[in-house]
Fold:
Amino acid sequence: MKSRLDRRTFLKDAGALTASAAWIASRAARVASAAALDGRGISAALFDGRYSSCRAFAHALSRKGARIFNVQPDAAAVWYGPLRDHLASCGGCVAGLTTFSDSMLSQSFGRDLGLSLRYEGAHDSRGSDVLKHELRAGAKVDEIAGALRGADSDWAEALAGVLVRSSAILRTGRRRSAITLSASVADHPGFLQSWLLAPKAPGHLSTRSA
Structure:
């Protein structure tokens, strides 16, 4: 009789532990989804491998845990190939420092996957040896500008760091602009665009084929 009771107690306790483990796993998944929406979840970074600032931006985000994707020579192939697979398994936000055309393409491709634009910046040195940054975001735009001000040739790493930290960017649709200046790097193409795309809702990912 005692052995049957011990076995019943053991099975009851094991069931409780299994349910507890399942709850913990479910809770962790919910926390991860929330993190992706509040700025702690930049899971992918796109960059143009031809330019040193773009490479520095991507590598800075890689050190924060993002997977990096070179949009050269074909941004569409990245979005509808390895990046799509990555987002399907990991979710999260996508940051980029690319040419203007690849920025526009990425915003379009992102919409197909349930991602919306939450920040963008123009980095313009056309006709000058000084790089002008025009930033459009929400309440954290001044923090982004402050990180870039005085960063000089390290501006791309500074931008990557503040995008990771500035979670409020992802929670507001209000937009403002600020301008700051830094030294241009030798291989800057004249104009680059930075951007951040975030999921519209936790777990949302379109399954529409390309």
